[in-house]
Write a structure and sequence with these properties.
The chain has one domain: MFS general substrate transporter like domains (Growth Hormone, Chain: A, Up-down Bundle), CATH 1.20.1250.20. The protein is about 75% helix and about 5% strand. The protein is built from 17 helices and four strands. The chain is globular. The two termini are about 40 Å apart.
Length: about 450
């Protein structure tokens, strides 16, 4: 009984009866959550640059990496999320997951030293290594950490958690941009991946000392077995019953299809099209996002009061405005563009995450993260990234990498097409607004 108590979170409530988190719990959310986002930042921004620099400047390689690693990550969410729901535990996944994740990052870096004579085989190896890293990362971050943040909060106090969860990917991008570009310039890629691997092992140690599972988490076991429970989610029966959750997932998909058209190619755009050094590209990417951060905390006050939709409308407008100017070859204008679409991305992600957490069934937080991954990761990366690659290969900027290998990087066409796509998000937002009113009415009737 004593050991169970030590590994179980003690629930604290304020005078109004709302669940609150201790300083130690917030510290863990920030430190370990940021660690995970730093690694996803590396995959989203520096892996493509690694491929262009060390493998070949071919956008199709990045397209395959993004699409297949998205599938691997999402399948990992279903597998590990189901396991967490069945055991009613997230701590073991984070404990093992962060250490294993570190190992896979180092293994990815080893692809640099594989013989380049058979490019097809090397491409397959690079993509496979990225998929393994993403599958393990899903255990540590998505079905572990993100599900845990849902377990320890409840409707009415998720605005602050939503703000932090929304800030973490951007903070990871900022730090990854400001620091990692300079580090890579100094020590090159493989040593950099070793440092990241050791860093993730250290995060596993932090999990051991800082994480406790929510005591009110109830095991959710399908009597037909583990794999039946895993694959049962793929019929999306939960979305058929929950119209609001379906609307939120569709908004995720439509917005992030546009996002994936340009984001995976953004660092290569700054380096190869705009002509920045690796380190300065990180500054141009990171500094505007720092300026955008305060808006997420401003949003949290509105989100706790259920004011989601104005935030989303403004987010779409800011994203479109940023995409329309970011390609202009002027540092100030480029930074303003990144600030605008960075603000838009952070705020709409924050609103969608808070709404989704409020809609999730209490016994399916892990599996619900898998459903979110389908619409937030798989669909956008399998549609948006290939569109971006197509635009680059047919209309992009001709360039050569450090080995003299010819290829193409993103230019204005990529950003303009993404800007033209983004207004489509307004259609599912309007549908969600209508269903949200029905959701509130139904909730009030049930409480009565």
């Amino acid at each position: 009984m004593k050991e169970k108590k030590n590994k179980t979170l003690e629930i604290h409530r304020n005078q109004e009866g709302k669940r609150i988190l201790t300083g130690k719990e917030w510290l863990f959310v920030v430190i370990v959550g940021l660690a995970g986002q730093l690694i996803w930042c590396v995959e989203n921004t520096w892996y493509p640059n690694f491929v262009y620099t060390k493998i070949a400047p071919d956008a199709s390689i990045i397209s395959w990496m993004v699409a297949l690693s998205a599938m691997a990550s999402t399948f990992g969410c279903f597998v590990w999320g189901t396991l967490g729901d069945r055991l009613a535990k997230r701590r073991p996944q984070m404990l093992i997951g962060y250490a294993a994740w570190g190992i896979t990052v180092v293994l990815f870096g080893l692809t640099e030293y594989v013989n380049h004579s058979n490019m097809a085989a090397l491409t397959a190896l690079v993509v496979f290594a990225d998929c393994v890293m993403s599958f393990i990362g899903a255990m540590a971050n998505d079905s572990g950490f993100i599900a845990w943040t849902t377990d320890i909060t409840e409707e009415g106090n998720r605005g602050r958690m939503g703000a932090v969860v929304a800030v973490l990917p951007v903070a990871g991008t900022i730090l990854g941009g400001l620091l990692f570009g300079k580090i890579i310039e100094k020590i090159d890629y493989f040593k950099f991946f070793i440092v990241l691997g050791l860093f993730l092992v250290l995060m596993s140690v932090a999990v051991h000392f800082m994480v406790k599972d929510a005591p009110d988490l109830v095991p959710n076991k399908d009597p037909k077995g583990f794999w039946h429970q895993v694959f049962s989610v793929f019929d999306f029966s939960l979305l058929k019953k929950n119209k609001l959750m379906k609307d939120i997932c569709i908004i995720f998909a439509v917005y992030f299809i546009g996002f994936q058209m340009y984001f995976s190619h953004l660092t290569n755009f700054l380096v190869y099209t705009q002509g920045y050094t690796t380190g300065n590209a990180g500054l141009v990417l990171g500094l505007p996002l720092i300026a955008a951060l305060p808006f997420t905390f401003l949003c949290s006050r509105y989100l706790d009061n259920g004011k989601f939709y104005n935030i989303m409308y403004i987010s779409v407008a800011a994203t479109v405005a940023g995409l329309l100017i970011v390609w202009i070859p002027n540092t100030v204008v480029t930074c303003l563009g990144i600030f605008l679409f960075g603000t838009g991305y952070m705020c709409i992600y924050q609103a969608l995450m808070v709404m989704l957490k409020n809609c999730m069934p209490a016994s399916m937080h892990g599996q619900s993260e898998g459903i979110r991954q389908v619409f937030y990761v798989v669909i956008p990366m399998c549609i948006g990234t290939p569109i971006g690659s197509f635009l680059i290969k047919h209309f992009g900027f001709a360039m050569r990498n450090e080995y003299g290998v010819a290829g193409y990087s993103a230019n204005w066409v990529t950003f303009i097409v993404a800007a033209l796509w983004m207004p489509l998000v307004l259609i599912p937002i309007r549908k969600a607004k209508k269903d949200y009113l029905e959701y509130l009415s139904s909730k009030e009737n049930n409480e009565q």
